[in-house]
Inverse folding.
Protein backbone atom coordinates (compact mmCIF):
# COMPACT_ATOMS: atom_id res chain seq x y z
CA UNK A 1 0.00 0.00 0.00
CA UNK A 2 1.32 3.43 -0.93
CA UNK A 3 2.08 6.14 1.61
CA UNK A 4 1.14 9.67 0.53
CA UNK A 5 1.53 13.20 1.75
CA UNK A 6 -0.76 16.10 0.93
CA UNK A 7 0.94 17.06 -2.34
CA UNK A 8 0.86 13.48 -3.59
CA UNK A 9 -2.85 13.14 -2.70
CA UNK A 10 -3.59 16.35 -4.63
CA UNK A 11 -1.67 15.04 -7.61
CA UNK A 12 -3.49 11.69 -7.51
CA UNK A 13 -6.78 13.55 -7.33
CA UNK A 14 -5.78 15.83 -10.21
CA UNK A 15 -4.70 12.99 -12.50
CA UNK A 16 -7.85 10.99 -11.73
CA UNK A 17 -10.16 13.91 -12.43
CA UNK A 18 -8.37 15.94 -15.13
CA UNK A 19 -6.38 13.33 -17.06
CA UNK A 20 -8.54 10.23 -16.64
CA UNK A 21 -11.85 12.02 -16.43
CA UNK A 22 -13.30 10.40 -13.30
CA UNK A 23 -15.83 12.96 -12.07
CA UNK A 24 -14.81 14.52 -8.74
CA UNK A 25 -18.39 13.94 -7.56
CA UNK A 26 -17.90 10.18 -8.06
CA UNK A 27 -14.79 10.26 -5.87
CA UNK A 28 -16.67 12.17 -3.20
CA UNK A 29 -19.54 9.70 -3.36
CA UNK A 30 -17.15 6.76 -3.06
CA UNK A 31 -15.44 8.47 -0.13
CA UNK A 32 -18.77 8.91 1.62
CA UNK A 33 -19.80 5.29 1.02
CA UNK A 34 -16.43 4.11 2.35
CA UNK A 35 -17.05 6.04 5.56
CA UNK A 36 -20.59 4.69 5.91
CA UNK A 37 -19.17 1.17 5.54
CA UNK A 38 -17.08 1.86 8.62
CA UNK A 39 -19.97 3.19 10.72
CA UNK A 40 -21.85 1.03 13.20
CA UNK A 41 -25.24 1.05 11.51
CA UNK A 42 -26.96 -0.61 14.44
CA UNK A 43 -26.77 2.85 16.04
CA UNK A 44 -29.62 5.30 15.57
CA UNK A 45 -28.46 8.90 16.04
CA UNK A 46 -25.61 10.49 14.07
CA UNK A 47 -24.23 14.03 14.18
CA UNK A 48 -22.18 15.12 11.16
CA UNK A 49 -19.93 18.18 11.55
CA UNK A 50 -18.89 19.72 8.21
CA UNK A 51 -16.30 22.27 7.17
CA UNK A 52 -16.33 24.35 3.99
CA UNK A 53 -13.89 22.32 1.86
CA UNK A 54 -14.27 18.95 0.17
CA UNK A 55 -13.83 17.23 3.51
CA UNK A 56 -17.07 18.94 4.49
CA UNK A 57 -18.55 17.78 1.17
CA UNK A 58 -17.78 14.19 2.14
CA UNK A 59 -19.65 14.83 5.37
CA UNK A 60 -22.75 16.19 3.57
CA UNK A 61 -22.77 13.07 1.38
CA UNK A 62 -22.39 10.80 4.42
CA UNK A 63 -25.37 12.55 6.04
CA UNK A 64 -27.45 11.87 2.90
CA UNK A 65 -26.64 8.16 3.02
CA UNK A 66 -27.56 7.98 6.69
CA UNK A 67 -30.81 9.84 5.97
CA UNK A 68 -31.60 7.31 3.22
CA UNK A 69 -31.15 4.55 5.78
CA UNK A 70 -33.77 6.20 8.01
CA UNK A 71 -31.19 7.16 10.63
CA UNK A 72 -31.68 10.23 12.74
CA UNK A 73 -29.11 12.75 11.45
CA UNK A 74 -28.20 16.26 12.51
CA UNK A 75 -25.76 18.24 10.41
CA UNK A 76 -23.78 21.16 11.87
CA UNK A 77 -21.70 23.17 9.41
CA UNK A 78 -19.26 26.06 9.25
CA UNK A 79 -20.99 28.81 7.33
CA UNK A 80 -18.35 31.54 7.42
CA UNK A 81 -15.47 31.73 4.94
CA UNK A 82 -14.90 31.04 1.28
CA UNK A 83 -17.49 29.63 -1.14
CA UNK A 84 -18.06 25.91 -1.36
CA UNK A 85 -16.34 23.98 -4.12
CA UNK A 86 -18.72 22.53 -6.72
CA UNK A 87 -19.16 19.01 -5.32
CA UNK A 88 -19.47 20.24 -1.76
CA UNK A 89 -22.11 22.79 -2.81
CA UNK A 90 -24.06 20.09 -4.65
CA UNK A 91 -24.15 17.84 -1.61
CA UNK A 92 -25.05 20.76 0.66
CA UNK A 93 -27.99 21.72 -1.55
CA UNK A 94 -29.30 18.16 -1.78
CA UNK A 95 -29.45 17.96 2.00
CA UNK A 96 -31.27 21.31 2.16
CA UNK A 97 -33.85 20.15 -0.36
CA UNK A 98 -34.33 16.87 1.45
CA UNK A 99 -35.05 18.78 4.63
CA UNK A 100 -32.31 17.10 6.67
CA UNK A 101 -31.87 19.15 9.87
CA UNK A 102 -28.92 21.50 9.27
CA UNK A 103 -27.57 24.08 11.67
CA UNK A 104 -24.88 26.66 10.91
CA UNK A 105 -22.31 26.71 13.71
CA UNK A 106 -22.10 30.01 15.60
CA UNK A 107 -21.99 31.36 19.13
CA UNK A 108 -25.78 31.14 19.32
CA UNK A 109 -26.00 27.53 18.16
CA UNK A 110 -23.09 26.26 20.31
CA UNK A 111 -25.41 25.13 23.09
CA UNK A 112 -27.56 22.96 20.81
CA UNK A 113 -24.39 21.64 19.11
CA UNK A 114 -23.04 20.56 22.49
CA UNK A 115 -26.29 18.83 23.44
CA UNK A 116 -26.40 17.03 20.07
CA UNK A 117 -22.82 15.81 20.51
CA UNK A 118 -23.70 14.44 23.93
CA UNK A 119 -26.75 12.61 22.62
CA UNK A 120 -25.17 11.27 19.43
CA UNK A 121 -24.22 7.61 19.18
CA UNK A 122 -21.62 8.58 16.57
CA UNK A 123 -20.13 11.92 15.57
CA UNK A 124 -18.76 12.21 12.03
CA UNK A 125 -15.88 14.69 11.88
CA UNK A 126 -15.60 16.22 8.42
CA UNK A 127 -14.42 19.71 9.34
CA UNK A 128 -10.93 19.65 7.82
CA UNK A 129 -9.07 17.06 5.77
CA UNK A 130 -5.85 17.32 3.84
CA UNK A 131 -6.58 20.98 3.10
CA UNK A 132 -5.79 22.37 6.53
CA UNK A 133 -3.69 25.33 5.52
CA UNK A 134 -3.04 27.45 8.58
CA UNK A 135 -3.16 27.25 12.39
CA UNK A 136 -6.53 26.24 13.80
CA UNK A 137 -7.69 29.11 16.01
CA UNK A 138 -10.64 30.81 17.63
CA UNK A 139 -14.03 29.47 16.66
CA UNK A 140 -12.89 26.34 14.81
CA UNK A 141 -10.65 25.49 17.71
CA UNK A 142 -13.61 25.74 20.05
CA UNK A 143 -15.70 23.50 17.77
CA UNK A 144 -12.98 20.82 17.88
CA UNK A 145 -12.70 21.12 21.65
CA UNK A 146 -16.47 20.62 21.96
CA UNK A 147 -16.26 17.47 19.81
CA UNK A 148 -13.45 16.07 21.97
CA UNK A 149 -15.14 16.82 25.26
CA UNK A 150 -18.69 15.75 24.46
CA UNK A 151 -18.61 12.89 21.92
CA UNK A 152 -19.06 9.22 22.70
CA UNK A 153 -17.56 7.90 19.45
CA UNK A 154 -15.94 9.88 16.63
CA UNK A 155 -15.28 8.82 13.04
CA UNK A 156 -12.88 11.24 11.35
CA UNK A 157 -13.19 11.57 7.60
CA UNK A 158 -9.80 11.22 5.86
CA UNK A 159 -7.82 13.00 8.61
CA UNK A 160 -8.66 13.92 12.23
CA UNK A 161 -9.56 17.58 11.75
CA UNK A 162 -6.70 19.92 12.66
CA UNK A 163 -3.94 17.39 11.98
CA UNK A 164 -1.32 18.11 9.35
CA UNK A 165 -1.50 15.01 7.14
CA UNK A 166 2.13 15.44 6.06
CA UNK A 167 3.71 15.60 9.50
CA UNK A 168 1.06 14.32 11.90
CA UNK A 169 1.48 17.50 13.93
CA UNK A 170 -1.38 19.45 15.47
CA UNK A 171 -2.21 22.73 13.76
CA UNK A 172 -3.45 24.02 17.13
CA UNK A 173 -6.27 21.64 18.03
CA UNK A 174 -6.95 18.12 16.72
CA UNK A 175 -10.03 15.92 16.86
CA UNK A 176 -9.52 12.75 18.91
CA UNK A 177 -10.96 10.09 16.64
CA UNK A 178 -11.99 6.56 17.53
CA UNK A 179 -11.60 5.61 13.89
CA UNK A 180 -10.04 7.51 10.99
CA UNK A 181 -11.24 6.46 7.55
CA UNK A 182 -8.55 7.73 5.22
CA UNK A 183 -8.80 7.65 1.45
CA UNK A 184 -6.77 5.72 -1.07
CA UNK A 185 -3.31 5.83 0.61
CA UNK A 186 -1.89 5.76 4.12
CA UNK A 187 -1.12 9.35 5.05
CA UNK A 188 2.53 10.01 5.79
CA UNK A 189 1.77 12.03 8.92
CA UNK A 190 -0.12 9.11 10.49
CA UNK A 191 3.20 7.31 10.91
CA UNK A 192 4.50 10.01 13.26
CA UNK A 193 4.16 8.73 16.84
CA UNK A 194 2.72 12.14 17.84
CA UNK A 195 -0.25 11.55 15.55
CA UNK A 196 -1.21 8.14 16.86
CA UNK A 197 -3.21 9.10 19.97
CA UNK A 198 -5.56 11.18 17.76
CA UNK A 199 -6.14 8.61 15.03
CA UNK A 200 -7.88 5.72 16.77
CA UNK A 201 -8.12 2.74 14.46
CA UNK A 202 -7.03 3.54 10.89
CA UNK A 203 -9.02 2.22 7.92
CA UNK A 204 -7.51 2.93 4.50
CA UNK A 205 -10.32 2.82 1.93
CA UNK A 206 -10.06 2.90 -1.85
CA UNK A 207 -12.38 5.47 -3.43
CA UNK A 208 -12.20 4.40 -7.06
CA UNK A 209 -8.81 5.77 -8.09
CA UNK A 210 -6.99 3.08 -10.08
CA UNK A 211 -3.53 1.84 -9.00
CA UNK A 212 -1.76 3.16 -12.13
CA UNK A 213 -2.99 6.67 -11.30
CA UNK A 214 -1.53 6.37 -7.81
CA UNK A 215 1.69 5.04 -9.34
CA UNK A 216 2.10 8.16 -11.51
CA UNK A 217 2.29 10.35 -8.43
CA UNK A 218 4.05 8.02 -6.04
CA UNK A 219 7.21 8.78 -4.10
CA UNK A 220 8.47 5.22 -3.51
CA UNK A 221 7.04 4.93 0.00
CA UNK A 222 4.92 1.92 0.95
CA UNK A 223 3.37 0.15 3.87
CA UNK A 224 4.41 -3.51 3.62
CA UNK A 225 1.38 -5.50 2.46
CA UNK A 226 0.63 -8.94 3.83
CA UNK A 227 0.50 -10.31 0.29
CA UNK A 228 3.93 -8.84 -0.54
CA UNK A 229 5.45 -10.46 2.56
CA UNK A 230 3.88 -13.83 1.72
CA UNK A 231 5.19 -13.66 -1.84
CA UNK A 232 8.75 -13.04 -0.63
CA UNK A 233 9.04 -16.24 1.43
CA UNK A 234 11.55 -18.37 -0.50
CA UNK A 235 10.28 -21.57 -2.10
CA UNK A 236 12.42 -24.54 -1.13
CA UNK A 237 13.26 -26.93 -3.91
CA UNK A 238 12.47 -30.60 -3.17
CA UNK A 239 16.04 -31.52 -4.02
CA UNK A 240 17.66 -28.68 -2.07
CA UNK A 241 20.37 -29.45 0.47
CA UNK A 242 21.90 -27.41 3.25
CA UNK A 243 24.45 -25.83 0.94
CA UNK A 244 21.60 -24.20 -1.01
CA UNK A 245 20.22 -22.23 1.92
CA UNK A 246 23.08 -19.99 2.83
CA UNK A 247 26.07 -19.96 5.13
CA UNK A 248 25.49 -17.46 7.90
CA UNK A 249 28.22 -16.42 10.31
CA UNK A 250 26.93 -14.78 13.48
CA UNK A 251 29.55 -12.72 15.32
CA UNK A 252 28.01 -12.08 18.70
CA UNK A 253 28.21 -12.54 22.47
CA UNK A 254 30.53 -11.44 25.24
CA UNK A 255 30.61 -11.69 29.04
CA UNK A 256 27.07 -11.06 30.32
CA UNK A 257 25.58 -11.12 26.82
CA UNK A 258 25.60 -14.74 25.77
CA UNK A 259 21.81 -14.78 25.31
CA UNK A 260 22.03 -12.28 22.43
CA UNK A 261 24.40 -14.62 20.60
CA UNK A 262 22.21 -17.67 21.11
CA UNK A 263 18.99 -15.91 20.15
CA UNK A 264 20.48 -14.46 16.97
CA UNK A 265 21.96 -17.82 15.98
CA UNK A 266 18.78 -19.78 16.67
CA UNK A 267 16.64 -17.23 14.83
CA UNK A 268 18.80 -17.73 11.73
CA UNK A 269 18.40 -21.50 12.02
CA UNK A 270 14.62 -21.32 12.52
CA UNK A 271 14.24 -18.99 9.53
CA UNK A 272 15.71 -21.67 7.31
CA UNK A 273 19.47 -21.17 6.94
CA UNK A 274 21.43 -24.18 5.75
CA UNK A 275 24.54 -23.65 7.85
CA UNK A 276 24.88 -21.27 10.78
CA UNK A 277 28.13 -20.68 12.64
CA UNK A 278 28.57 -18.67 15.82
CA UNK A 279 31.77 -16.79 16.56
CA UNK A 280 31.83 -15.10 19.95
CA UNK A 281 34.36 -13.32 22.13
CA UNK A 282 36.99 -15.62 23.59
CA UNK A 283 35.83 -15.35 27.23
CA UNK A 284 32.41 -16.87 26.50
CA UNK A 285 33.36 -19.10 23.59
CA UNK A 286 33.60 -22.39 25.53
CA UNK A 287 30.36 -21.91 27.44
CA UNK A 288 28.48 -21.01 24.23
CA UNK A 289 29.87 -23.99 22.34
CA UNK A 290 28.24 -26.29 24.89
CA UNK A 291 24.82 -24.73 24.32
CA UNK A 292 24.76 -24.98 20.53
CA UNK A 293 22.85 -27.83 18.93
CA UNK A 294 22.22 -27.17 15.26
CA UNK A 295 24.81 -24.39 14.86
CA UNK A 296 28.57 -24.71 14.50
CA UNK A 297 31.10 -22.65 16.38
CA UNK A 298 34.17 -20.71 15.32
CA UNK A 299 36.97 -19.57 17.61
CA UNK A 300 37.53 -15.77 17.34
CA UNK A 301 41.13 -16.43 16.24
CA UNK A 302 39.66 -17.90 13.03
CA UNK A 303 37.28 -15.00 12.37
CA UNK A 304 38.89 -13.92 9.11
CA UNK A 305 38.76 -17.43 7.74
CA UNK A 306 35.13 -17.87 8.80
CA UNK A 307 34.12 -14.61 7.12
CA UNK A 308 35.71 -15.68 3.85
CA UNK A 309 33.49 -18.79 3.74
CA UNK A 310 30.23 -17.10 4.77
CA UNK A 311 27.56 -15.70 2.46
CA UNK A 312 26.24 -13.48 5.20
CA UNK A 313 27.81 -12.10 8.36
CA UNK A 314 25.56 -10.88 11.17
CA UNK A 315 27.76 -8.74 13.36
CA UNK A 316 27.16 -7.16 16.71
CA UNK A 317 24.56 -8.62 19.12
CA UNK A 318 26.00 -8.64 22.64
CA UNK A 319 29.59 -7.96 21.56
CA UNK A 320 30.00 -4.94 23.85
CA UNK A 321 30.71 -1.34 22.97
CA UNK A 322 34.50 -1.73 23.11
CA UNK A 323 37.48 -0.96 20.90
CA UNK A 324 37.97 -4.67 20.41
CA UNK A 325 34.50 -4.85 18.83
CA UNK A 326 35.49 -2.15 16.37
CA UNK A 327 38.71 -4.03 15.60
CA UNK A 328 36.67 -7.18 14.93
CA UNK A 329 34.36 -5.20 12.64
CA UNK A 330 37.33 -3.86 10.68
CA UNK A 331 38.64 -7.40 10.32
CA UNK A 332 35.27 -8.62 9.06
CA UNK A 333 35.07 -5.74 6.56
CA UNK A 334 38.63 -6.38 5.34
CA UNK A 335 37.97 -10.08 4.87
CA UNK A 336 34.68 -9.40 3.06
CA UNK A 337 36.37 -6.90 0.75
CA UNK A 338 39.08 -9.43 -0.10
CA UNK A 339 36.86 -12.48 -0.44
CA UNK A 340 33.69 -10.61 -1.17
CA UNK A 341 31.54 -10.21 -4.12
CA UNK A 342 28.35 -8.34 -4.60
CA UNK A 343 26.26 -11.25 -3.41
CA UNK A 344 27.69 -11.15 0.12
CA UNK A 345 25.98 -9.25 2.90
CA UNK A 346 27.12 -7.77 6.19
CA UNK A 347 24.34 -7.05 8.67
CA UNK A 348 25.43 -4.81 11.52
CA UNK A 349 23.35 -4.70 14.69
CA UNK A 350 23.57 -3.52 18.30
CA UNK A 351 27.18 -3.00 19.48
CA UNK A 352 28.35 -3.30 15.90
CA UNK A 353 26.42 -0.06 15.35
CA UNK A 354 27.53 1.54 18.60
CA UNK A 355 31.20 1.27 17.65
CA UNK A 356 30.45 3.04 14.36
CA UNK A 357 29.70 6.31 16.15
CA UNK A 358 31.63 9.06 14.34
CA UNK A 359 33.11 6.44 11.99
CA UNK A 360 30.26 5.81 9.57
CA UNK A 361 32.36 6.91 6.60
CA UNK A 362 33.86 3.41 6.53
CA UNK A 363 30.52 2.15 5.19
CA UNK A 364 30.38 4.22 2.04
CA UNK A 365 32.88 2.47 -0.23
CA UNK A 366 32.24 -1.22 0.35
CA UNK A 367 31.82 -3.71 -2.48
CA UNK A 368 29.28 -5.88 -0.66
CA UNK A 369 25.79 -5.31 0.71
CA UNK A 370 25.43 -3.67 4.10
CA UNK A 371 22.31 -3.73 6.28
CA UNK A 372 22.13 -1.69 9.48
CA UNK A 373 19.42 -2.47 12.04
CA UNK A 374 19.45 0.39 14.58
CA UNK A 375 16.81 1.22 17.15
CA UNK A 376 16.31 4.94 17.69
CA UNK A 377 19.14 5.25 20.27
CA UNK A 378 21.59 3.54 17.95
CA UNK A 379 20.37 5.64 15.03
CA UNK A 380 20.97 8.74 17.10
CA UNK A 381 24.58 7.67 17.69
CA UNK A 382 25.02 6.92 14.00
CA UNK A 383 23.58 10.10 12.54
CA UNK A 384 24.08 12.63 15.32
CA UNK A 385 20.41 13.69 15.56
CA UNK A 386 18.60 13.49 18.89
CA UNK A 387 16.15 10.64 19.48
CA UNK A 388 13.34 13.20 19.50
CA UNK A 389 14.35 14.62 16.12
CA UNK A 390 14.53 11.13 14.65
CA UNK A 391 11.11 10.10 15.98
CA UNK A 392 9.58 13.17 14.32
CA UNK A 393 10.92 12.19 10.92
CA UNK A 394 11.72 8.51 10.98
CA UNK A 395 11.26 8.00 7.24
CA UNK A 396 13.38 10.96 6.18
CA UNK A 397 16.16 10.18 8.68
CA UNK A 398 16.45 6.54 7.64
CA UNK A 399 16.15 7.34 3.95
CA UNK A 400 18.82 10.03 3.85
CA UNK A 401 21.26 7.98 5.97
CA UNK A 402 20.81 4.96 3.69
CA UNK A 403 21.31 7.10 0.60
CA UNK A 404 24.42 8.79 1.94
CA UNK A 405 26.04 5.60 3.23
CA UNK A 406 24.91 3.31 0.39
CA UNK A 407 23.39 0.78 2.73
CA UNK A 408 20.02 -0.55 3.83
CA UNK A 409 18.67 0.89 7.05
CA UNK A 410 16.13 -0.91 9.22
CA UNK A 411 15.10 1.76 11.73
CA UNK A 412 13.37 -0.30 14.39
CA UNK A 413 10.47 0.67 16.62
CA UNK A 414 6.72 0.79 16.11
CA UNK A 415 6.29 1.02 12.32
CA UNK A 416 9.88 -0.03 11.58
CA UNK A 417 11.23 1.81 8.52
CA UNK A 418 13.13 -0.26 5.94
CA UNK A 419 14.88 1.64 3.17
CA UNK A 420 17.75 1.52 0.72
CA UNK A 421 17.55 5.29 0.31
CA UNK A 422 15.52 4.99 -2.84
CA UNK A 423 12.37 3.16 -1.71
CA UNK A 424 10.87 2.95 1.75
CA UNK A 425 8.79 0.17 3.32
CA UNK A 426 7.10 0.90 6.62
CA UNK A 427 6.28 -2.23 8.56
CA UNK A 428 2.76 -2.49 9.98
CA UNK A 429 3.25 -5.56 12.22
CA UNK A 430 4.45 -5.85 15.81
CA UNK A 431 3.55 -4.13 19.06
CA UNK A 432 4.85 -3.19 22.48
CA UNK A 433 4.11 -6.77 23.63
CA UNK A 434 7.44 -7.48 21.89
CA UNK A 435 9.35 -4.74 23.72
CA UNK A 436 11.86 -7.02 25.48
CA UNK A 437 15.59 -7.66 25.34
CA UNK A 438 16.52 -10.18 22.68
CA UNK A 439 13.91 -9.15 20.11
CA UNK A 440 16.41 -7.20 18.03
CA UNK A 441 18.87 -10.11 18.14
CA UNK A 442 16.16 -12.40 16.77
CA UNK A 443 15.34 -9.92 13.99
CA UNK A 444 19.00 -9.65 12.98
CA UNK A 445 19.25 -13.44 12.73
CA UNK A 446 16.04 -13.65 10.69
CA UNK A 447 17.08 -10.99 8.16
CA UNK A 448 20.58 -12.47 7.88
CA UNK A 449 19.08 -15.89 7.24
CA UNK A 450 16.78 -14.60 4.48
CA UNK A 451 19.74 -12.89 2.76
CA UNK A 452 21.58 -16.19 2.80
CA UNK A 453 18.59 -17.92 1.21
CA UNK A 454 18.90 -15.73 -1.86
CA UNK A 455 16.62 -12.77 -1.20
CA UNK A 456 17.90 -9.35 -2.18
CA UNK A 457 19.00 -7.53 0.99
CA UNK A 458 16.11 -5.06 0.80
CA UNK A 459 13.61 -7.91 0.33
CA UNK A 460 15.17 -9.82 3.21
CA UNK A 461 14.86 -6.77 5.46
CA UNK A 462 11.24 -6.16 4.43
CA UNK A 463 10.21 -9.80 4.91
CA UNK A 464 12.24 -10.35 8.09
CA UNK A 465 10.75 -7.29 9.73
CA UNK A 466 7.22 -8.20 8.68
CA UNK A 467 7.51 -11.83 9.83
CA UNK A 468 9.07 -10.87 13.16
CA UNK A 469 6.18 -8.52 13.95
CA UNK A 470 3.53 -10.79 12.47
CA UNK A 471 4.58 -13.69 14.68
CA UNK A 472 4.71 -11.32 17.64
CA UNK A 473 1.14 -10.18 16.90
CA UNK A 474 -0.07 -13.76 16.57
CA UNK A 475 1.45 -14.72 19.92
CA UNK A 476 0.35 -11.49 21.63
CA UNK A 477 -3.25 -12.48 20.98
CA UNK A 478 -2.92 -14.87 23.90
CA UNK A 479 -0.10 -13.32 25.92
CA UNK A 480 0.67 -10.09 27.76
CA UNK A 481 4.25 -10.14 26.47
CA UNK A 482 6.09 -12.22 23.92
CA UNK A 483 9.62 -13.54 24.46
CA UNK A 484 12.23 -13.70 21.71
CA UNK A 485 12.57 -17.47 22.22
CA UNK A 486 8.82 -17.84 21.63
CA UNK A 487 9.17 -15.94 18.35
CA UNK A 488 12.00 -18.27 17.33
CA UNK A 489 9.93 -21.39 18.07
CA UNK A 490 7.04 -20.04 16.02
CA UNK A 491 9.03 -18.96 12.93
CA UNK A 492 8.93 -22.20 10.88
CA UNK A 493 5.20 -22.75 11.42
CA UNK A 494 4.28 -19.17 10.59
CA UNK A 495 6.46 -19.10 7.47
CA UNK A 496 4.81 -22.29 6.24
CA UNK A 497 1.30 -20.97 6.92
CA UNK A 498 2.01 -17.63 5.22
CA UNK A 499 3.59 -19.32 2.24
CA UNK A 500 0.69 -21.76 1.86
CA UNK A 501 -1.84 -18.92 2.12
CA UNK A 502 -0.63 -17.40 -1.16
CA UNK A 503 -1.47 -20.49 -3.22
N1 LIG B 1 -7.99 13.73 -2.75
C1 LIG B 1 -9.04 13.07 -3.20
O1 LIG B 1 -8.86 12.25 -4.04
C2 LIG B 1 -10.36 13.32 -2.64
C3 LIG B 1 -10.52 14.11 -1.51
N2 LIG B 1 -11.67 14.23 -0.87
C4 LIG B 1 -11.78 15.02 0.33
O2 LIG B 1 -11.32 16.31 0.14
C5 LIG B 1 -10.49 16.69 1.24
C6 LIG B 1 -9.60 17.80 0.81
O3 LIG B 1 -10.45 18.83 0.46
P1 LIG B 1 -9.95 20.34 0.36
O4 LIG B 1 -8.73 20.39 -0.43
O5 LIG B 1 -11.10 21.10 -0.10
O6 LIG B 1 -9.55 20.67 1.85
P2 LIG B 1 -10.30 20.53 3.25
O7 LIG B 1 -9.51 19.57 4.07
O8 LIG B 1 -11.73 20.28 3.12
O9 LIG B 1 -10.06 21.97 3.91
C7 LIG B 1 -10.23 23.14 3.14
C8 LIG B 1 -11.19 24.07 3.84
O10 LIG B 1 -10.77 24.28 5.15
C9 LIG B 1 -10.56 25.66 5.39
N3 LIG B 1 -9.42 25.78 6.26
C10 LIG B 1 -8.19 25.27 6.06
N4 LIG B 1 -7.43 25.49 7.15
C11 LIG B 1 -8.21 26.12 8.05
C12 LIG B 1 -7.99 26.57 9.37
N5 LIG B 1 -6.82 26.41 10.00
N6 LIG B 1 -9.00 27.16 10.00
C13 LIG B 1 -10.19 27.34 9.38
N7 LIG B 1 -10.45 26.91 8.13
C14 LIG B 1 -9.47 26.31 7.49
C15 LIG B 1 -10.40 26.30 4.05
O11 LIG B 1 -10.92 27.58 4.16
P3 LIG B 1 -10.37 28.81 3.28
O12 LIG B 1 -8.89 28.81 3.47
O13 LIG B 1 -10.77 28.50 1.90
O14 LIG B 1 -11.06 29.95 3.91
C16 LIG B 1 -11.26 25.40 3.19
O15 LIG B 1 -12.58 25.82 3.22
C17 LIG B 1 -9.83 15.41 1.62
O16 LIG B 1 -9.30 15.42 2.91
C18 LIG B 1 -10.98 14.44 1.46
O17 LIG B 1 -11.76 14.43 2.63
C19 LIG B 1 -12.83 13.45 -1.30
O18 LIG B 1 -13.92 14.26 -1.40
C20 LIG B 1 -12.71 12.66 -2.55
C21 LIG B 1 -11.53 12.75 -3.33
K1 LIG C 1 -11.78 15.35 9.08
Amino acid sequence: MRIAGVEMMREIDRIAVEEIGIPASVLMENAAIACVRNLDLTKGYFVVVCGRGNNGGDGFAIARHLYCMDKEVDVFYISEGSDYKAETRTNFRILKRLGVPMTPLSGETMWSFREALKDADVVVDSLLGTGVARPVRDFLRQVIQEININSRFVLSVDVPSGMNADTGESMGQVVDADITVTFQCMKRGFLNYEAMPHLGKIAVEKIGIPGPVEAKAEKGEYLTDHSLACSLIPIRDKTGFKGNYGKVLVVAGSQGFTGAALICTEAAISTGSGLVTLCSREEVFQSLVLRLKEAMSLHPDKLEDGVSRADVVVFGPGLGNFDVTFDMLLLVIKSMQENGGRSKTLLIDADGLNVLKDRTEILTHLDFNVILTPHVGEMSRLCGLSAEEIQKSRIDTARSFALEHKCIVVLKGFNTVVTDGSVVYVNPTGSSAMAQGGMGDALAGMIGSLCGQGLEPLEAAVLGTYLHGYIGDELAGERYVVKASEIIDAIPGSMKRLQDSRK
About this structure: The pocket of NPW (ligand 1) is lined by residues 9, 12-13, 27-28, 31, 51-58, 81-82, 85, 128-136, 140, 157-159, 171, 183, 207 (CB under 6 Å). The chain has 20 helices and 19 strands.
